[in-house]
Write a structure and sequence with these properties.
Blueprint (H helix, E strand, L loop, with lengths): L6 H31 L5 H27 L3 H7 L1 H8 L6 H20 L4 H24 L10 H12 L12 H43 L6 H25 L11
Helix pairs in contact: 1-2, 1-5, 1-6, 2-4, 4-5, 5-6, 6-7, 6-8
Protein name: Voltage-gated potassium channel
Subcellular location: Membrane
GO cellular component, one term: voltage-gated potassium channel complex
Amino acid sequence: MEPDDEPRLEAWERRTDYPLTALAVLYLGVYAVQVLATRPGQASWWWLDAALWVVWGVFVVDYVVRITLARRKGRFILRHPLDLLVVAAPFFRFLRLLRLVAAISVLGRVLRDDFRGRVGSYLLVSISLLSFIAALGVFEAERDAPDATILTFGDALWWVLTTITTVGYGDLSPVTTEGRLVAAGLMLAGIAVLGTVTAAIATWFLEQVGARDASEAVAAPPRADPADLRHAELLAELRDLRRRLDHLESAPDRPAESAPS
């Protein structure tokens, strides 16, 4: 069997995780400013868009280096589908939404390493990040669309909350193809989040019950086996009978009763 370790790849990821995390945060910040504070056609819009392209290019270079260092390239591609989508983004029509995958992929990789074993912290950070990105994406896609209902960023945040929790009031819904793609991804993420939360709660309850049973077992005296108790009772009875027999054997002979006249 081939070894699963990738020493060169792991060394590269250790060196680049935190710099790429800083770039991913910068990427999201620039994208948020572009969506919330500027409009297409403005000079500031084009400068921000150029900055996004530069950071996206760094993510692509990172993916190319990682797949070059990987010894089992097919397995690497299958295990990192989001990273592949980042590289293929220019070949898709909805480039702007797909470029968000770059930040999600990098931040998700670091979160898995930093919050491993801390399910609650990992879920909180992941859900907050996913909700913010989805709100930005659906707001940009919907705000200028005819018959759109998501017209402000506050509407987008409310829609994200009702969607990711699988409540779905139906008061707000995307009408564009891009917005519906965001909705599909968010609904799948909501199902995954609920499943993870349920599993975490069940695990916590099992751990608490196991710890309580262990403490009770240590504090309480061990219970005797009924068979051992019965055996002890029989031995006690036998000892009692043996004492009586010994007493009878050691007693002086009784005088014989006189015969009747």
